[in-house]
# Entry
Amino acid sequence: DMGMAYHAIKNYEMAVQSYQEALKCSPAEIWIIHHNIALANFERNEYIEAIKNCDKAIESFNRYSRAFTTRGRAKFKINRIDEALQDLDLAVDFAPDYSESYLYRGFVRFQIGDFYGAKSDFEKVAEIMGEETCPEVNQNLEIIGQLLRDSQNNL
# Structure
């Protein structure tokens, strides 16, 4: 698929054009194409457009966890924190083995000061990914551990 090829080389404008052409063919899995457009929108910092395309993906397949994850990430970027958490919670519910949903929910929880929730999410990412866990997850777990220890020492 040309859209994916353009996405891989970070030519998001051409990726979106290719995906839009694919939509004209009325594919059976239209939600995947809408989500791919949303990913390209997200990479171009077009968060409102990313949300709209995730909405279209979810309208076509209302349990598509990746679209909920991307929409949650986009909502977080435009400071719609509560909605972002709702989307990420749904993503986790629909696909409990999809590590990215936990990863991004952990980032959101960390940013709002829910360190116990963030710790739980990052631990779940490490459990799912095993040895392939990205260093950022382990680094965040160390930071959270220190924050929690500091908060207990200040009591």
